[in-house]
Amino acid sequence: MSELDEWQRRVDAFWAAFDDSEPERMRAEMRALVGERPAEDATALAEWGSVHDALGLEADAVGPYRSALAAGLDPERAHQVTLQLASTLRNLGEYEAAVELLTDLEAPELGDAPAAFLALALHSAGRADEALATALTALAPHLPRYGRAAAAYAAELVGDAPE
Fold first, then answer.
1. What domains are there in the chain, each with its CATH number?
2. Does the global pTM surpass 0.85?
């Protein structure tokens, strides 16, 4: 097992035992893990953002998330961090920034999570029809019946209904 794999195993163990009722201990444990990696390590930066996010310290998560994305993450991790950053921005009231990040996020490995978070961001931005249309569009393929109707209603909400 490589040194990086061993580090990731310990990060995974940290998250498996994560306890938000002990925020200082959680930050200290993640700080120690992050400290083992180079300062510009994208994955470590993402984890540092994540611990703040998970502890409800969203404002402190934004910088590390942005730094992680700028430093270069593998595509799947970049998708996860983009979604997490967008969710955090929404929680901080930066709705349009969240919408912008999520609108073109193509992350098949995340399933319909980007659509769910986009719907939340749109709703928070006061764009209720677009939010509902996004949610219905994501839901429609999973309906054993009435999926086509749900998709049509979604299109109608945003003015894309066939004439």
1. 3-93 (1.25.40.10)
2. yes
